[in-house]
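In the current project phase, the collection of sequences with tokenised folds has grown. A representative record is quoted in full directly below:
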Amino acid sequence: MTSDLYVSPIPYNLNIRFIENRIVVERPAQVVYDWVTTWANLPKWLPMASGTEVRRGNEGVPAELGDVLLENIVPELNEKPKLYTVVARVPGKLWTVVGRDVLDNGVPAPAMHAIATFTTFDLGDGTTLFCRLFERLVPDTEPAGPHPIEDPARIQPGLELLKAHIEGTVE
């Protein structure tokens, strides 16, 4: 299977952006799902995450519906921290979180900013296709063009790291 990066046909001058990355992991779908939906694993592979703090739930097991995580973003992106809440969960198959910026006063923004959906597809031979779809609402004040957080090429090395962790080959 090729690891060609998804290129959205939606132009960069609209108010929403879609970023998709995928990778085949040589482990069963449930194993992949459990690892990627465990909050403690997020900073191990997601290049944007500099650290996390579980606000509701347990960091060491797959996050449940309603669980909440604070994600700090790497400083060079100059992004506000994000507060993510699990809004959809189909164990072993699909997991969706909705994120809001955390404002300077520590209060979450009143509206959502992003949606991240992780899906796992059993390929029938003990391997799993893992997909990460990230949808980002673009503020009116942001200049046109892609934002670094929307670059699939920046995320793909993270998926390679995710694969290495799950397959037990991380160096």
